[in-house]
């Protein structure tokens, strides 16, 4: 099994969903970042991931990375939530963001802000001011969730 699949198994074992794994450089530091979401819905949106859940998951994943390092050289493991406003770049991430508001930039340069209703094959179905619209995933250049205050 791949390292990402092993990490995903640990994430699922504590009742969370793996959103993304990325490697980021911040100054001199290299960070192996594991982003997770909750499965639970509270007040019509996903419950926030707690600090205790992140710490627990860090303790589960860290020994795995000691045996199977994801990178050569020094790095720091960081487990956390991708946040309420986050980049959406895969169909799986769109599926995990159903019910949230998304902002899209299309290849045609059009911009759309709407509520994500569902994902059907490679189509993203949105509610834009009461009108249901469909966008082909390959037409999306940039996407993120956003919170309306």
Structure report:
The chain has 2 domains: 78 residues, GMP Synthetase, Chain A, domain 3 (2-Layer Sandwich), CATH 3.30.300; 56 residues, Roll (SH3 type barrels), CATH 2.30.30.100. The protein is 23% helix and 44% strand. The chain contains 3 helices and 10 strands, in the order αββββαβαβββββ. Strand 6 and strand 7 form a beta hairpin. Helix 1 packs antiparallel against helix 2.
Question: Number of helical runs?
Answer: 3
Helices and strands, in N-to-C order?
Answer: HEEEEHEHEEEEE
Shape category: globular
Assigned CATH class of the largest domain: Alpha Beta
Number of domains: 2
Structural class: alpha+beta
Sum up the structure in keywords.
149 residues, alpha+beta, GMP Synthetase, Chain A, domain 3, SH3 type barrels, 2 domains, 3-stranded mixed sheet, 10 strands, 23% helix, globular
Ordered list of secondary-structure elements with their pairings:
Layout: H1 3-13, E1 16-26, E2 29-38, E3 41-42, E4 45-46, H2 51-67, E5 76-80, H3 91-96, E6 101-106, E7 111-120, E8 123-128, E9 131-136, E10 140-146
Parallel strand pairs: 2-5
Antiparallel strand pairs: 1-2, 3-4, 6-7, 6-10, 7-8, 8-9
Helix pairs in contact: 1-2
Task: Compose a concise summary of this entry.
By secondary structure, the protein is an alpha+beta fold. It contains 3 helices and 10 strands, in the order H-E-E-E-E-H-E-H-E-E-E-E-E.
């Amino acid at each position: 099994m791949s390292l990402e699949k092993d990490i995903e198994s640990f994430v699922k074992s504590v009742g969370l969903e793996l959103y993304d794994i990325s490697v980021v450089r911040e100054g001199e530091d290299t960070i192996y970042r594991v982003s997770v979401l909750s499965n639970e819905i509270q007040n019509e949106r996903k419950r926030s991931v707690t600090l205790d859940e992140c710490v627990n998951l860090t303790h589960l994943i860290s020994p795995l990375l000691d045996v199977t390092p994801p990178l050569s050289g020094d790095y720091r493991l960081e487990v956390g939530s991708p946040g309420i406003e986050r980049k959406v770049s895969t169909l799986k991430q769109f599926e995990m963001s159903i019910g949230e508001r998304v902002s899209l930039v299309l290849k045609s340069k059009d911009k759309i802000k709407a509520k994500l209703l569902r994902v059907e094959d490679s189509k993203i179905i949105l509610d834009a001011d009461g009108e249901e619209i469909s966008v082909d995933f390959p037409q999306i250049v940039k996407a993120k969730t956003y919170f309306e205050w």
